[in-house]
Amino acid sequence: MMKKIARIALALGLSLAVGGCSSGTANTGSNNQGGNESQDEGTKPALRMIMQYGLFDPNKEFTSKYIQEKTGYEIKYEMLPAENADEKLNLLVANKESFDLMKLNAAQFYNLATAGALEPIDELLKAHGDNINQAIKPDSWGSATIDGKVYALPETGAGVSIGEELVVRQDWLDELGLKIPTNPDELYSVLKIIKEKKGIIPLTGSRDSIYGDIAAAFGVLTDWKEVDGKLVHKAEQPEMKAFLEYMIKLYSEGLLDTEMPINTAPKAIEKFSSGKAAIYKLAWWNAGSTISALSKNFPDAKVSVIPYLRGKDGKATIGAVANTTWFIAIPKASKHKEDAMKLLNAKLELETFKGMAIGTEGIHHEVKDGKYYPILPKFNDELNNASAFMTGVDEEKYPTYWQARVRKDPVLQAYYEEFQKNSEGIIIVDPMSLAPPIEAVSKNTLKLNKLLDDNVLKFIAGSEPLASYEQFLAQWHAEGGTDMVRAANEWYATTK
């Protein structure tokens, strides 16, 4: 449907003024009809920007007023709806509403770029993008490049970091005289003793968090892996079967929560924090509430992080993705292309960007031991939604600025920093992270990952024998896997 609508827009002549959510809204900007020219020297047109949905009014936010103050541009922000956002966006394209900037997810970006609705920005970047080119690293541009032309600023977020790691009730390990496990075999032994001596669930988890530390110890790190110069999806990797054999063993012996295939994340957290389970893969962003609940239930409970498990080679690795989170595009029919690029460039001026990210020192943040800490409640009150206004980030500095958000809670901060410390030097980044949107990949990824995950849970729980894995894999290939792997490798070959 998305492509059909975009083609309708093309048939209408691509006089596309890609628009916002409020129908019939007049453009409050320049009367200049030239399309690509700035207004007379000393004046700046009002610009319109489409954003993703959020539970706030962007035009009333502190950050929107800050951007206008620092750049001199008045910007009218409008949001896509919470539901059917893609359909709404394409209808706005067909209806020729006027926009100057758009913050798009990968699928939206690919569909509009290939439909001819977005402006190639190579020349605009050369003319007006000095701050942008300083802020965004050369490798990041590939994700926003189609057929050799750049169609958007890639917004990569806060850099590569690790979100989850196994944690264990240290007080129970001490009680049983056990050491923290360092590999899957040691983990098995610890789980077995906990089951025998404590009579609780040794290891719990949720249906949405199948992989991670244990899978990584067997070599299953991310969706994609380079093998002999070619990309192989994790569904096709022999390491997947070794991982499954281990998990099946845990499940069949009652060492893995028998309800794991149906557990939600909150349910798994509840089992750990209520003393029903000894080990859980904790996400740092859930650490504050999880540890608080555990401490309330068991004031003397102690928790330790289990360092990433070592594989058979004696080395630990953990996978991560470094994908482009958002794509900041200029619609082809914008009347203010140069000014749109000038705005994007002005927002990435060093001090302006720092102010967007963490506000003013002494008001929104403070510096202690070389680290940025939020001043509460001012930081939350005025900067809680600041990331929605990002249109590309300073990839060198933003990860450091962003960590101020983690330091709003000392427990959350402690777990975040320990996870990152444990992962230093052992992170393997998914080789598809820098790929542009590829139709066969974009179209099939969610569907095929769901097919894989559903079957992985069946194998672990024993409702399907592992002997039928090749039969599943044939289905996975037939339903789009073959096309997806071929397209991924065609792109990968161009990077050599």
Describe this structure as you would to a colleague.
- By secondary structure, the chain is of the alpha/beta class.
- 43% of the residues lie in helices and 14% in strands.
- It is built from 19 helices and 17 strands.
- It has helices at 2-11, 62-71, 85-94, 106-114, 122-128, 130-135, 170-176, 184-198, 213-217, 238-252, 265-273, 287-297, 337-347, 350-358, 378-383, 398-406, 410-423, 439-461, 469-494; strands spanning 47-51, 75-79, 101-104, 145-146, 149-150, 153-155, 164-169, 201-204, 224-227, 230-233, 277-283, 303-305, 318-320, 326-329, 365-368, 371-374, 427-429.
- The strands form six sheets. A five-stranded mixed beta sheet has the order 2-1-3-14-6.
- β9 (224-227) and β10 (230-233) form a beta hairpin.
- It is globular.
- Mean pLDDT is 90; it is low at 1-40.
Provide keyphrases for this structure.
496 residues; alpha/beta; five-stranded mixed sheet; four-stranded mixed sheet
Average pLDDT level: 90
Number of helical stretches of at least 4 residues: 19
Amount of beta strand: 5-15%
Radius of gyration: 25 Å
Low-confidence region ranges: 1-40
Query: Helical amount among residues, as a percent range?
Result: 40-55%
- Roughly how many Å apart are the termini? 35 Å
Total beta-strand segments: 17
Give a short account of the largest sheet: 5 strands, mixed
Q: Tell me, what's the shape?
A: globular
Strand order of the largest sheet: 2-1-3-14-6
What class would the helix/strand composition place it in?
Answer: alpha/beta
